[in-house]
Fold ABC transporter ATPase.
Amino acid sequence: MNTLQQLLRKIDGKGYKAYKELQGHYTYKGYELRFDYVQGDPFASPSKLRVIIPNKSVYIMPEWKQTQSRKIYTEDFIARSVSQAIARDKTFIKGTGKSGMIMVDTPGQELIERTAVTLHKEEMVLCLSIGLPANGRRINGKEAEKLLFHVIPNVLTHSVLSLNDHEIQRTCELADQHDTIRAKMKEENWVAFVADGSILPRESGISDRPLQQAVPFQSPEENRVSISIPHQEQPITGMALKKGITLIVGGGYHGKSTLLKAIERGVYPHIRGDGREFVLTDLNAMKVRAEDGRAVTTVNISPFINDLPHKEDTTQFSTDNASGSTSQAANVMEAIEAGASTILMDEDTSATNFMIRDERMQSLVTKEKEPITPFIDQVKPMKDELDVSTILVMGGSGDYFDVADEVILLDQYEPFNVTNKAKKIAAAHPQKRRKEVVVPFHSFPNRHFQSSSIQSYKGKKSKVQAKGLHHIVIGQQDLSLHLVEQMVHSAQTNTIAMVLQYMERKGLLKKRQSLPDLLDRLEKQMDEQGMASFAPYPEQHPGELARPRRFEIAAALNRLRTANVTLL
């Protein structure tokens, strides 16, 4: 540490770029600091710092890493404790720009694998971003000493060096419970489980915290199941939704979309106290909606769209400006291609002509003049031919009663199983509309994204940069993911951006391989080598990364306006 202190005093008052001399590693009492990247300007992106803590300084119980879930949940807990310690520290660091800033990638309500904290066999690695202090654009060495010798040690003392064993144990128990429920879901062919007592509504449109004094969820008797879970004497009960076609109906403002939103987010585990910690969904569930204006490249949408006026081939459909119906058709087909086994859909965000076409409209506009085969006519073939389930919010058309396996009614936020009643209504009022299936689902040619699909170079320099949760700048284009609804944290967007740049840098798209094979390869690398393996310098601070699903990586590729796709 004397070396670092001497260096700070030597460069005090010099131009800010002299901070670059800090790059390297320094030993503290009980841990090591590694400066992997040092900012060149006080207003630039903050410096990247790793804290390496050997096991002799912080005891990590072996059982905390016993399963992959336990390890991820423990790492998440430690990252949260560091974030809380940073927030509690009120030390004032003077300076311009980002002077004195300390940041760790702070998790949200979900428990997602991250690079913020990584537990290795012999050590723990904590990734921080810090703003080195400046006066104007000159080094403020005294404030830098305060930051590095007082604030950071204080943060570590009150987080990683004083972990609450009891709370980590409870976090690991939650991991075991989630794993047990997921195993039961797989065994029983359930696509979703919503525990009794869950709090589904959120605080507001800009907050993901639970709404205070909301009505707790109570499962319908017909769907109530009981699961014995570890670390708890009483079994957990709740609503199980089986594979098949589930319709969620009810009046406006009675909780239909709230239930679907909770199910949509159930692909991620949630922290204790979130209200949705025991809402779990098929990990391969994909939320699908209309997305006017998106680019579509060589997608077979023929099961839903055929015989367009300009005779365009819908088995290899491409457009720079998709309509509501064509975008939703493409979203469904792309989700299935990526491996989705459950489709989630809400009428509020769907194209009406994609969802339904009633008898009167069929009489006025004959099938010969209508290129769209509505979803109602393909939802059952999707189940029967592809084994793809659907959970659909539909409050405006009873025609779906005929194809639904189960109908759940929301009445003042309370769910009721009204399947028998819905089937009786359907029998008493038979629909007169004609089924319109033209193209059955069958095995389609695999798509291959060519290397020219990712064009990150702006002049001689490659530029791929995530901008918040919903945007990635790639070369000259702004890739929008704002309607990819199961993205939950900007760190996932950072990872997708890094993966895209990695694919271009390593020439992964030069190999002729299908999109599913490419996604399998990327997931395998994440499993075996971690997200940091996609970074340009994998042995350094990788940045704020959280693991995306294969579906969101595919969504990014599919929305590239430079995509160049051939069929295998």
Residues 165-188 form the longest helix (24 residues). The mean pLDDT is 96. The first strand starts at residue 24 and ends at 27.
